């Protein structure tokens, strides 16, 4: 140790030693980070063939960086805008009051969506690590947050890619005319040709989905073996994901140019085409007609909060992982607002498209209903069951409109009140067709595909639609895989190519559970149980660890140092009070709903050609709850292990950029007055090695807020004075 250091000077002094982290680090020899084997995976002095020493990496610490801001924004948009925007948001909008639903959704987007999205972007960008590394630095005892986040990403990625596989199957099936789900198949029974009974009892698109695509079993107990068509589709889906993420952000960033932008091209094309179809305006008008009384129902607010939560991808780790590749002075506040608004506008656009098309479908189905029931009435007239005097004189059966049928239906119902039920006539109301709410696979693979069969040039529109679904899913899967691989790459020296291939192979093998004939039931189980409650718990712990353990005032000051301006006081109150309170209510509502609602799934009954609700058998129910427990188990395990010092808290493992930044600041300070390093003060009074900055003024901006506990003894090195982690 050099003789002139403050440590050796203290050896011969009677004054108490209160050496800071900054002093200890100042003794280390500077490290050539650009030639570091750890940062580049190369031997010192060597470079990859044909590449510069630091290609496309941040000059600060050798961490890979986005080529440009557009790539990063498209990656965040691609991750947040997914299948839920197309098949979940329109359903919730219709179910919860039409246009009135947009009010609670937008309010909650402002109260929890944007603030928590901003929080994740900020901590990822400042600490420059994946989800595990970030929360280990913020508060090591809550390091399980990152592990739980990674596990939820794994669960969701397993079944989410199955949906992409289904879309791939439909995509290739769309290259034929007529579309294979346009009509029911004909079965030959000896010399007779009859319509497939299962299809006749349901519909052509429903039959194609359940029988031709899934070849589904009647219960979850019957596995039925592997569905080889779906197995091959799943393999293709995982190959696509692997190719997209194999080079990290260098490959996924390029993919995002297409996968993030192409869905918007398709949505606009569908909107223009949909508005030209008969009945599209009826669908849009029905969609946005506000039912204001719905806003008073707590269920509407709960579902709006849940949708905001999952629409932005909070808690998955993908948001933190993507932002960790940014430069530390990037304006993440602007990014949070921009991506959130794009996500909201995309949901509105998708809702317009869906209900324009479903409005057209409702008119087609309503006209078919009128024709079928008019034939019944003609039959009753010819057999004398009904008198011709019941038919208004102006009605022409050869040009029967929906209004004419409604009038005729009303007369017959009034006159034949006693025996009307035996006639089997339907009212054929357009409103009834529009009120048939569908979501998820029911919307994408049944309702929407049925509507497209009535489009001119239907194969073209079908190819475009399913190609759009593939790209929407791929964008989300890239974010999900990044949320898995980034924390692992931060913790271990593994080549990212090998890690990605191994992860995709393991995920494909585990995903075989979902491509059995009973696989759709497991997709439903994972969708209902693997993410909802665990992710909400993860996000509230993220909020608490930053706002209450690290300190909101300190975090706001850190943001000012990082961004160059002080964020609005609005965020102070949201992070500290409002967002945690809303998340607590959301967790309570989720637990109550899970305990009240029966645990089960909709099984396909072949003999009836319809779905029927089945309760989960005991083993399946145990599996469903095990998903929740396994996802949340790292939280208490890591807390207990670090609380009792069973494992290292990782607080001494500073990131390369932190250590390098410290060395710069300490070098500058050494040139200044030596009195700034006098250690005869209490730890809380010791000066920070970070550059001086103005103290953060509280939300009111008139009284200086200070924190005299910065140097108090805690179990985390992240909050110790003299460590740049005190700046986040």
UniProtKB/TrEMBL annotation:
Top-rank taxon, per record: Eukaryota
Annotated Na(+) binding sites: 78, 81, 85, 343, 472, 476
Subcellular location: Membrane
Keyword line: Glycoprotein, Membrane, Metal-binding, Sodium, Symport, Transmembrane, Transmembrane helix, Transport
PROSITE patterns hit by this protein: NA_NEUROTRAN_SYMP_1, NA_NEUROTRAN_SYMP_2, NA_NEUROTRAN_SYMP_3
A Gene Ontology molecular function term of the record: metal ion binding
Regions crossing the membrane: 72-90, 102-123, 144-172, 230-249, 261-284, 304-325, 337-358, 460-486, 498-517, 529-550, 570-592, 619-641
Main location: membrane
Positions of region (Disordered): 35-60, 681-728
Keyword set includes Hydrolase: no
Alphabetized InterPro entries for the sequence: Na/ntran_symport (IPR000175), Neutral_aa_SLC6 (IPR002438), SNS_sf (IPR037272)
Record-level GO BP terms: alanine transport; glycine transport; L-leucine transport; proline transport; sodium ion transmembrane transport
Name of this protein: Transporter
